[in-house]
Amino acid sequence: IPLVTVRHVSKRFANGTLAVRDVDLELGAGQFISLLGPSGCGKSTLLRMIAGLGAPTSGTISWPGEQGADQGTAGHGGRDLGFVFQDPTLMPWANALANVMLPLKLKGVPRAEAEARAAEMLALVGLKGFEKSYPRELSGGMKMRVSIARALVMRPKILLMDEPFAALDEITRHRLNDDLLELWWRERFTAVFVTHSVFESVYLSQRIVVMAARPGRVMADLSVEADYPRDE
Ligand code: ADP
Ligand code: ADP
């Protein structure tokens, strides 16, 4: 069964903008899926609705595997997901470890266990040794790594990423693409990656969902036969 089912979903904002129009989509467990399209085509709006951040105007988004998590409108509605925004949005007064520990603390995980799990996650994203660094001491790429670690620390089934690397320079972006792919290969969460970069979508994903410039429709759903792992 699919992890997420999107049925006839449309979204019209209060100002009249039709951002997403009649989208049908099934997100399969374990896939790396890109949502590709030019700026303003509704990718972000769709991703946020999948996360439960904003309800569709019409249509339904359901999580067939999860009881009681269907069609939630507020917050994540108990859905088993992590979300990475374009801006890493770290707490400036807390070091990298404390930033990654936050979701564990909110869940009431005991401090020692939370620390160990956060440290392990930081190591997985390539930041071993930077646990005590504050966001201002980290580069843009490193802050994004912390943000990914924080999104994954609860080990969600699905990681939703909204143009996570768009603000980074090309070289850093390339490194992060490689490392994200490796992480996904190792950890096997379902990944949904919003991008306007054809290169990124082809490089990263097994499946590319193409959205049109306007207004918010899915124009193609492509399967990319990639040979994972890339290098052995
Ligand atoms: P993308 O992520 O593909 O760049 P968005 O989903 O951010 O596209 O936006 C789709 C359309 O909806 C755009 O025309 C955008 O201006 C509009 N839009 C996004 N958020 C809002 C909002 N809160 N209120 C009104 N219009 C919005
Ligand atoms: P990436 O984002 O892929 O880690 P960056 O270009 O941001 O690449 O950084 C390259 C490397 O330089 C980092 O992995 C890190 O080892 C080091 N580095 C960058 N910024 C700092 C910093 N503020 N303090 C210590 N080391 C840093």
Automatic annotation (TrEMBL):
<comment type="similarity">
    <text>Belongs to the ABC transporter superfamily.</text>
</comment>
<dbReference type="GO" id="GO:0016887">
    <property type="term" value="F:ATP hydrolysis activity"/>
</dbReference>
<keyword id="KW-0067">ATP-binding</keyword>
<dbReference type="InterPro" id="IPR017871">
    <property type="entry name" value="ABC_transporter-like_CS"/>
</dbReference>
<feature type="domain" description="ABC transporter">
    <location>
        <begin position="4"/>
        <end position="232"/>
    </location>
</feature>
<keyword id="KW-0813">Transport</keyword>
<protein>
    <submittedName>
        <fullName>Nitrate/sulfonate/bicarbonate ABC transporter ATP-binding protein</fullName>
    </submittedName>
</protein>
<dbReference type="InterPro" id="IPR003439">
    <property type="entry name" value="ABC_transporter-like_ATP-bd"/>
</dbReference>
<dbReference type="Pfam" id="PF00005">
    <property type="entry name" value="ABC_tran"/>
</dbReference>
<dbReference type="InterPro" id="IPR050166">
    <property type="entry name" value="ABC_transporter_ATP-bind"/>
</dbReference>
<dbReference type="InterPro" id="IPR003593">
    <property type="entry name" value="AAA+_ATPase"/>
</dbReference>
<dbReference type="GO" id="GO:0005524">
    <property type="term" value="F:ATP binding"/>
</dbReference>
<keyword id="KW-0547">Nucleotide-binding</keyword>
<dbReference type="InterPro" id="IPR027417">
    <property type="entry name" value="P-loop_NTPase"/>
</dbReference>
